[in-house]
Structure formats: C-alpha cells, structure tokens
Amino acid sequence: MKKKLTVIMLAIAVIGAFALSACGGEEATTLKVVTEATFKPFEFVEDGSDEIQGFDVDMMNAIAEDQGLSIEFVNIEFDALIPALDSNQGDIICAGMNKLSGDRAEQADFGDTYFESDLMLLVKADSDITGIDGVTPDMKLASQIGTTGGEYVQDLAKEGKIADGVVLNQWTDCYLQLQNGDVQGVIVDLPVGNAYLAENGDVAKYVGEKFGDHEEFAFAVKKGNTELLDKLNTGLANLKESGKYDELLQKWFS
User: Fold this and answer.
1) Taking the model in full, what pTM does it have?
2) Is residue 189 a contact partner of residue 168, using CB atoms and an 8 Å limit?
3) What digits encode the pLDDT tens for the residues 46-95?
4) CATH of 118-213, one of 2.70.40.10, 3.40.190.10, 2.30.29.30, 3.40.50.300
5) Packing angle of the helix pair 244-253, 226-242 (nearest 10 deg)
6) CA end-to-end distance (rounded Å), the chain
C-alpha cells in the first residue's frame, strides 16, 4: 500500500511539473548581460549603490520584456567582456561597445546598431589645449583599456605625437588622473564626455571638434548564437517602432 501511494504521488508531481511548464510557470533561464558600469549615461552606478542603471540597461530590459527573456546585469572590466562570452560567463554584451573597432566582429556576433558616436577630447578647465591637433610630444592622454579611445591614445604615442597613451581599467580612473594633473587630456566618447561635463564643468572642458573613426554601438553574443541575436534584434526593432526607444533617448540624452 505504501509503495502504491508513493507511485501515485510521483505521478501527480510529474503531471504538475508538466502543467506548470505548459502554463509558463516554470522559471525561465536567466541570461547574464555583462557590462562595464562606468560609462555614464549608458551604464553606471551611483556612489554608495550597486544598482546598474543607464540607457543600455533600460533598453536591454525593454528588449527582454518584449521577447520574454529573463536577464540580469553583471559588472566586469571592459577588456573582459568578450572573453566572458567565450567562457560562458556571460550571454550578452551590452556596454556601449563599438562593433566596428578592430577585430571584434571576428570575436563575437554583433547585433544591429543602436547608437552612433564619435570621440572627443576632455582637458582641465584652465588648459590651453585647443583640440586634438593641439597636443604635443610632452603630453600624456588617458582613455579606457580595450576601447576605441584606448587604441587612439596608444596610436598617438606610437606616432610620437604625445609622450604616453595611458590606458586604465575604468573611466572614473581616467577622470581622476585628469583632475590630479597626471594626464593633460582624456579621450572619450561624445555622449559619455558630455555626461561627465554636466556634473564636472568646473574642473574640465571639451575642446576642438569630434574626431576618430565613426562608431556604432551594438550588443553582442557568442559566435554562432544566432537564435538569441535574432531575438535581440527583433526586440530592438519593436522598441523603435513603438516609440519606446525614442523615449529612452529623451530620458538619458536630453
């Protein structure tokens, strides 16, 4: 009798599990979205908080909702983003990453462009530098490691146009070096530099014109993961069609 009761209970449990799955009650797999959260207004954390926020976060959350995906953001260093896909430590990169830079397109599969940008030069508020063409061989410029700006400052150093191209792990480190006078300028993406100036216009300024190769920001997945990439692209297209994308632009870049 006890054995028969056990079999009946097991059958009920199995049927219940199938019913739960069919009704969508089974918990979906949570996809890890890796980012580097010092790239305000795309992704950042406020002092004293661990919550990642920004345009990329809102956009990806809206795409996930549109496509029925469960996601969570994970904050890691920028040059570890693509390796995180390769090692299955992350499923999606969404970090203001320029898909046109270097050999990135050979290392990961990028989605449709969701934002376009160029580079700018930030200097101290009292600096005499007038633009990127005004830098001299005795100067140091900083940018973030693994970024288009990081490549640019290193190229300037190789060409002898500056003394050193300093590449650091986080944008906040670059800004701090500028404030301390350790470098004479920071090369950063236009919207990110403008966000910094909005809060620090008393210590820094934007000089000259935008420069560098035109950039296209896109999310990325591991090579070959076309099913996930198609969902993300479809979600992005739906956001643009519905007007939600423009709402987010207005929220973060107005």
Assistant:
1) 0.83
2) no
3) 987 889 999 999 999 999 999 999 999 999 999 999 999 999 999 999 99
4) 3.40.190.10
5) 80
6) 72
